Amino acid sequence: MSKVTVAVPDIGGAENVDVIEISVAIGDTVTVDQDLIVLETDKASMEVPCPQVGTVVELLVSVGDKINEGDAILVLETAAVESAPAEAPAAPAAIAEPAAAPAAVSAAAASTASQRIELTIPDLGGADEVTLIELCVEPGTEVAAEDSLLVLETDKASMDVPAPEAGKIIEFKVSVDDKVKEGDVYAVMEVAGAAAPASTAVAEPAVSAPVAAVAPVAAPAAPAAEIELALPDLGGADGVTVIELCVAPGTAVSAEDSLIVLETDKASMDVPAPEDGILVGFKVKEGDTVSEGDLYAVFKPAAASDAVAPAPAAPAPVAAAPVAPVAAPAVSPVSENGAVAVEEETVSNDIYAGPSSRRLARQLGVDLTKVKGTGIRGRITKDDIRSYVKNALQRTEQAPAAKAVTGGAGIPAIPAVDFSQFGDIDMVKLSKIKKVTAANMSRAWLNVPHVTQFDEADITDLEAFRKSMKAEAEKAGIKLTPMPFLIKAVAMALRAEPSFNVSLHHDGEHMVHKNYVHIGIACDTPNGLMVPVLRDADKKGIYQIAREANELIKAARDGKLKPRDMQGGCFTISSLGAMGGTAFTPIVNAPEVAILGVSKAQMKPVWNGQEFVPRNMLPLAVSYDHRAINGADCGRFFTTLVAMIADIRRVLL
Ligand code: CAO
Q: Among 40, 74, 303, 456, which is disulfide-ready with 617 (CB 3.0 to 4.6 Å)?
């Protein structure tokens, strides 16, 4: 065992750098390249990797400390036989400057095997130094030829640097936010077979950065004061795609403002305005394929533009009309959902994202102006896009308007309460039926926009008739309560008013009209509320309905209903008449679209046009799903129903 002190490596001359994160704790076993701490200046942050395997035995810095190159960070206990110097300045070697890293282009076979090659930064189109903004893979990753390894960026362009061939990335020699230039070694790669020649190790991006390459050319054909802008050096790339037009025709722009964004499969670049002026119009549109020298816009330099109208006549028929400014992207499938769109906010009109992120966004139909970047300096990463899509999908699933028929509502849960703090309680487990009922009620209540309409039916004559038939019915073994009459009246009212005998199809596109009439009977049972279904009530007589209803109610109370006995209802009747109450608002038993609530009948004085007469009045309530039924439909249905109950002979008509 020996102890090694890990020190701050070369940090590019930066001084008093903040320690913003300690990534390990005392006792941790660490491996080579594992992050130990994170440092940050106002320009960059860097992770300090571990130079060798060991166990952290002492931390010598804390978050908030300011440290410099060579400062001790922590002490490692290693398995090495020979002890390292007490204050070993060994760390720098582990950071960015590997032993014998050649300054120039890649050379084959740097380290262990002859198959290892060093990868160097390719031609940057004349740009001096560019910033490394993303390492696309982890050391140890197997990559295919052309897989992106790095993303580089100037203030005007970003580019992916692809793998020159298939292999395994052994290590990166660079870190995010490093400045790199052509020829810098950035990674060591293990490739199959013999060492690759140096040239194969140099990745050639499809498009080089057009940093100093903007080339407005005076257009001979253009009217005085207007010039046509030509595309700059594209690093030899042909067939580059126009992916964004950044300003609307007629817009005043400043020098260096982005006018269009071009993209190959490996790089994207902004093409900036050459000077202050007015972008008169575009000669290209999004999706066009362009090459160096192509005329892409008509531009009026500020010096020449006194007062140019917002849409001056372009010298050539420019493609101004169909151009959408970048702030109004055409594609946003997520925001097609109204409910979601309301919640969406445009985060930024300046899209700061690399080509691979832009490509992913296009594949997923994501509007990048709405994505918040969490990368360095607010850059949009692929993870940002994925999180955006995930969140959008979750919101869509929760948005009732998005799924008017099948959806739910993301309402906050009722907080948990410990009732025992207020007094003695007993906890009784819910029966399965009660749990199912609770779920069904919540589902119906949250999904169905309910309207409840009230009325009274004069059952004086009905009750007189029922009572006159009771003894006869009893002889036939039938208990004749008001319920069979209500079932028959409802069945015939549904026949007369078929707009109530429907269900919304779950696809949200259709209404299911039913040519059968099955009536659900809400039953209070010892196990909870159950709703057996009496089939074809429109085709049955009162005695048969009464007999079947009694059997179903008994089976419900005895817990003997079969699943089929509870399926297929068109409409439910819930009667609390035997219990009392003047009115209640029943919940629609979805996917049925309406329910009848029956309260306790009472003798009431009713004006017959000449005098008040005592009548037995039955309070009724119809709740209906306002997605499927309009108030006028309910008015018709309810009037028909009340008339049938008041004069039961009407069910024969
Ligand atoms: N007004 C006054 N009296 C009424 C009445 C009314 N609306 N409805 C029934 N009665 C009387 C009956 O006349 C009967 O007495 P008689 O036969 O001697 O005249 C007595 O009350 C008992 O009737 P019942 O309740 O046994 O029979 P029913 O067919 O009317 O009802 C059932 C059966 C299953 C609907 C009922 O027992 C029940 O369980 N209701 C509860 C429904 C429920 O819980 N719904 C959920 C509410 S929230 O949606």
A: 456
